[in-house]
Amino acid sequence: MYQPDPEYYPSLFYKTEDLSIELNCRGNTEYTKISYPVKYGIFHRLETRDLIMEFNLNHEIRHARGKTYAWRDPQEWLKRTVGNDWIYYSTGGYAGVFESIGEYYLPNLMYTTNSLLGGKPFKEPAISQLSMDWHPTLAATGLERALARPGVPEPVRQWAKKVLAVTPEKLAQKAETLFQISGERTTVLPPDARHSDYDVIPLTISDGCLYKCNFCKVKNKKEFTTRSPENINAQLTAIKALYGEDLVNYNSLYLGEHDALNTPADVILYAAKKAYDTFGFSQSAMALPRLYFFGSVDALINAEQRLFEGLNTLPFHTYINIGLESADPETLEKIGKPITREKAIRAFARMQQINKKFHRIEMSGNFIMDENLPKGHNTAMMALVRDSLKFTQQKGSIYLSPLRFGRPSREILFDFYHLKTRSRLPMFLYIIQRL
Question: Cβ distance 270 to 231 under 8 Å?
Fold first, then answer.
C-alpha cells in the first residue's frame, strides 16, 4: 500500500503548561470494527486540560470531546461531517449496538432520523455547548497567547493562525458549495457506507429515481435523468479543489443520487475510474478504496452483465444497495412502491448470483419495518432471506429501515432481533444518515 511521504507530513509536538499541539498525527490506515475510539488518516490534535480537538489537513475541526466529569464517557466523541453536521458517537454501553448496526459505536444525529436506538446526547449541556460553541471554546484555550511566546516553532505558529481563521461561517459556506457542485445535498447515504465511517466523496452521475414511493421521506421528486460526461468532469474538478489538502484522507466514492445503478453502464464505469484517478485514491493515506451507490429493483433486473464484470476489475470494492422494501403484494400497494412480488424475488435472486460470482462486488438489500405493516410482509421477507438460502452467508447484508422518523420503539426493536436470528444473511438496522 502507498503511504504519503513522512517528509511531506512531518510530525511535530509542541507543549506549554496550558496546552499541547501535535501536527500530522497518524491514525489507522484501514477502517475497522473495534470497541474503542479509532481515528483515521492524517490529522492535527490540540489538547488542553478540559478538551481535545482534532483538525483535518485543511485546518477544519473534525473531532472533539470533553475531558471533564461533565462529559458522558471518555470513549465517546463528536465528529463534524463534510456536510457540516455534528454527530455524537456513543457506545450504548456496547450492549446490542454491534448486533444492531454492525458497528461498535452508535451515531447520534442532530436531525430527525429513523433510528430505534440511542438517547438525546445533544440535549446534554457539555455536548451541546461544544458542538455549538466550538470556535469560542477554541479561542478560549489560550492558543493565541501560546503563539506570542518566544521559541514557538514556525509550523506550529502558522497552523494555529490558520485553525483560528476557520470560522463556523466559513465551514457552513464550504458545505453549501459542496451541495451546489452536486446540485443539492445528499439526503441519504447507502447503509454500506458505514464501512468507510461515511467518509465518502459524493459524485452525482444521475438525478432522481425510477419510483416515487409514498413512504419515502428522503428522496426528491425529480424524474430520473443521467448526467453528461462534461457535467461529471466539472464536478470532479470542483470537488478536488474544494477538498484541497485533506483529499489524501479519502479513498471512498459515493455515486448519486438515488438510483445510480439505472445509469448506463459506460457512464458508471467512466465516473468511477475517472474519480479514482482525479482524486488520487492510489496515493491515499487510507487503504482499501470503496465505491457505494444505490439501485432500484428494475435497474438491477435490467442491468447489463458487463457492468458487473467492469466493476469487478476496478480498484474499488463496490457496494450496491438495492431498495427491495418488501416482497408482499399488500405491503407494496400500501407503501406505493410500483413493483410486483415477482420482480422483488427476481431482483433478490440476481443479488445472490452477483454476490457469489464477483468477489469485489457486494449487493445489499433494504426492507422496511413497522408494526402497522401487513402480516404478509415479514413472511415474504423471510421466504427470501431464510427459506431461499440453503446456508448462512457472510456476504450480502440485509438492512431493515424503520418507516417512522423520530420514534424509537422497543417493540419494533424486539421484532428486529427476532428477524435477525432467523435470517441466513447478515441483518442490521438502517440508520438513515445524510452527507
Answer: no
Which residues, including other chains, have CB under 8 Å from residue 434's CB and lie 6 or more apart?
83, 85, 111, 185, 186, 187, 188, 189, 218
Q: Please give the grid coordinates belonging to residue 365.
A: 438489500
Identity of the residue numbered 393: Q
How far is it, in rounded angstroms, from Cα 373 to Cα 59?
Answer: 48
Contacts of 375 (CB under 8 A, 6+ apart): none
The Cα 12–Cα 336 span in angstroms is 58
pLDDT along the chain (435 residues), means of 10: 66 93 96 91 97 98 97 95 97 78 94 85 96 96 85 93 97 98 94 97 93 66 91 98 98 96 98 98 97 97 98 98 97 94 98 98 96 95 97 96 79 90 97 93
Q: Are 134 and 23 in contact (CB under 8 A)?
A: no
Q: How far is the C-alpha of 102 from the C-alpha of 107, rounded, in Å?
A: 12
Q: State the sign of the Cα–Cα–Cα–Cα dihedral 362, 296, 32, 393.
A: negative
Q: Is the peptide bond before 60 cis (omega within 30 degrees of 0)?
A: no
Does the pTM surpass 0.85? The reply is yes
